[in-house]
Amino acid sequence: MKPGTSSASAALAALIARSQRIVAFTGAGISTESGIPDFRSPGGIWSRMQPIDFRDFMSSIEMRREAWRRKAVIDQDFQQAAPNRGHRALAALVSRGAMSAIITQNIDGLHQASGVPADKVIELHGNGTYATCLDCGQRYELAPIMVAFERDETVPECDACGGIVKSATVSFGQAMPQAAMARAQAESTACDLFIVLGSSLVVYPAAGFPALAKRRGAKLVIINREETDQDGSADLVVHGEIGATLGEAVGVA
Ligand code: NAD
Ligand code: ZN
User: Fold this and answer.
1) Are β-strands 193-197 and 219-223 bridged in parallel, bridged antiparallel, or unpaired?
2) HSE on the CB side for 163, CA within 13 Å?
3) 172 CB under 6 A from ligand 1?
4) Which residues are registered as beta bridge partners of 123?
5) HSE-CB for 241 with a 13 A CA cutoff
6) Ligand 1 atom nearest 125 alpha carbon
7) Is the CA virtual torsion 202, 93, 170, 40 positive or negative?
């Protein structure tokens, strides 16, 4: 099937129309059209800045200071980003009652910003738009942290317990959030259509959900610019842009 052609969108629309319970699985690719670079494409975030492993983050205040330095750079993209056509199309499917959940590897909060109720978004890698205390769980907004950091590189600590405050994302080497994983598993099992959008499907355990859905009888759709390892098991593969393909299929501009 040709990239982004209307025949791809028509095939997708037909699958959507036939389904009772759709689940979306989104990766960094759904947010590139919002100006947030993805992970692995040339010029992607991590070709410029390696992520800091959780153990390194915990090991010293110097590493935490370096993590906050990188966060300050990445945040410039995040703060300017608004939901794009792909996000809007998913929000429409949720509001029509066709989509039960959006499982996301993203940390940018753009699904919620597009109007999807927070309880319909399952965040596997956390959320980078706020911070939490690793000891007591207290939530901290980013703006005051970043103001203090940019003033004199103050590394945030918890006011309540003195614990280490970290962006609410799941770092490499950090445990996956159990409740989110359990919900993602249940949704993957219960759906009849599972749509992967903009994930290279190489980061496990998250990348195991499409195969789980397929095993439990769902149709599997993969929309991605380039091939993924799981294309062979999909019922429909679209190598094209997410916004145009999904927007056309759902009838959202
Ligand atoms: P990835 O970067 O590994 O893969 C993204 C895929 O999307 C690529 O295969 C790319 O070809 C494709 N793509 C990019 N733009 C596209 C578009 N407009 N239309 C169609 N396809 C497009 O991303 P991943 O698999 O999600 O894994 C990266 C990890 O990095 C995630 O776990 C996530 O936590 C983190 N991350 C998040 C963000 C974010 O929150 N926006 C951004 C970068 C990285
Ligand atoms: Zn605390």
Assistant:
1) parallel
2) 14
3) no
4) 104
5) 11
6) 34
7) positive
